[in-house]
Each structure stands twice: as C-alpha cells, then as structure tokens.
Amino acid sequence: MSNILIVESKNDELFIRALIEHLNLSYVQVDSHPICHIDDFESMEGLNSKKLENRLSALKNQLPKKNMNAIGIIIDHDGKREERINLVNEAIQNIFTAEEHLLDTGKFISAYADVGDDRFDFQIACYLVNVNESGELETVLKAIKSKDSPYADCLGTWRECVEKRLGATSSEEKQKILSDKEFDKFWLNNYIRFDTCSKKEKKRAERKCGIRHFEYVTQSKKDIFDFDNPVLEDIKCFLGLFKNHGSN
Asked: I need a labelling partner for 181 at 20 to 30 A (CA). Which of 8, 65, 110, 218 fits?
C-alpha cells in the first residue's frame, strides 16, 4: 500500500521531492509523471481539467499493481482557489467514484475505482501551492530564498521603469505588460543564474545556473532555499496528513 502525490509540473515534482527528503518522510512519494509535461518555465497555459483527468486515469490503471491508500493532488493556486478546487472535483468525479466533493484543501474525501472485477478504495486530498492565497511554485521559492539577491531584487526597479515607459498606471494595465506570474519566473531565474551561481558553475551556466535545469539546483544547491521557512508550514501540514494512512 502506498501514498502517492501527483503534481502539476516537473519543477513541482523536484521541489516536493526535495522537501520530502528534507523532512525525512517515508510514508509518501511523488509520482514521477507530472500532470503537465511542457517546460515549466515556458508554459503559461498550465493546468486544465483534461490534463488532470489523464493523470488520474493513468493512476487508476495502476491500482491493481500499486494499491494506494491515499492520493494527494498538488497544483498551483494562481489566485483561483474556488476555480482550482472545482477543477479537481470535476476530474475526480469523471475518473473515480466519490459520494462527496472536496470543499477545501488539506482534507480527505473517500473515493473508489472499479478496475476489472476488483474495487479499490482510497482517500483523496488536494493542496494549492501559494503564498498568501496567491501564486505558484516560483512565488514560494522567491519567498524562501536564503541568499542575498541583489541581481534578482533589482528587477523590481526595472519592472517599474518598463511600466512607466509604457504608460501603465492601473494594476490591470501593469499586469498586462508583465504579470506577477511572469515576473516571479523571471526573478527566480535571475536569482539562480546571477545571485547564486558559483564561479565553477558559471563555466557550465547553461546546465547549472537556470530554472530550466532545476534538477541540478534541488540536488546540488538546495541551500539557496530555506526549507524551514514558515511559508512552507501549510504544505508541510498537508504532507503530514498522509502519515495516518501508512505506507509500505
């Protein structure tokens, strides 16, 4: 029996794996097939119901060989709590059988799936990656950075300059020029590329100093992020829910 987490992107997978390793959790594992396969840094479309349903359907087909106690769905908040929870509920109802809906994050509901002549019962919960009810993974990583970040931080002044030059005054106009989502990705890439890239790493900067190669970051330079930052308390609590479901 196992507890499985499915995540939105490859970078989400790498981050959650690093967090689980930091916490030394043995009762939950991250599925190695993210919901979205497009490069996380380049994709701005992200998640939709069909992609989530495809991933849940794949898990359903694995049930006879990989019986699961609980499934956790981790996706971006993006300032759309209700919309995201509704999307998860829709996917669950289309793939599994559940008599209730998820009403909030961090709470399990019971579900089951019929595969052939067998019935498999399990629990499902979801978590929305966020900082103060907004954002996504990059927003979290920006909030838990542990090193000085002058190169990345000065992008704020650059952003203000662009908005002024293009005559943007309202929040809506500014978001059209460069959304917070795009800015956080830009900030994070500069933090990794310029603020935390060593002289040795710069010799292979294209492989070791960018968000596109986040696997290297999570394996070789995790210290550029503070995994004990209070911002992570909510997701740590979510991961803790799976302890009561056991895993072997």
From this structure: 218
Query: Residues with Cβ < 8 Å from 51, sequence gap 6 or more?
Result: 35, 36
Separation CA 216–CA 125 (nearest Å): 30
User: 2-133+231-245 in CATH: which number?
Assistant: 3.40.980
CA atoms within 13 A on the CB side of 122: 27
Residue 190: per-residue pLDDT: 96
The domain limits of the chain are 2-133+231-245, 147-214
Question: What pLDDT score was predicted for residue 38?
Answer: 52
DSSP reduced 3-state for 196: coil
State the pLDDT at residue 45. Answer: 53
- Tell me which residues of the chain have a pLDDT lower than 70: 1, 37-46, 246-248
- Spell out the residues 6+ positions from residue 100 whose beta carbon is closer than 8 angstroms to its own: 109, 110
Residue whose token pair is 């509901």: 109
- Residue 20's H or E segment, with its range, is helix 10-23
Pairing between β-strand 109-115 and β-strand 2-7 as defined by DSSP bridges: unpaired
Q: What is the number of other CB atoms lying within 10 angstroms of the CB of residue 217?
A: 23
User: Which of 169, 12, 164 shows the shortest CA–CA distance to 78?
Assistant: 12
Three-state DSSP state, 121 = strand
- Amino acid letter, 67: N
Q: Report pLDDT for 37.
A: 64
For residue range 120-153, list pLDDT tens digits in order: 999 999 999 999 999 999 999 999 999 999 999 9
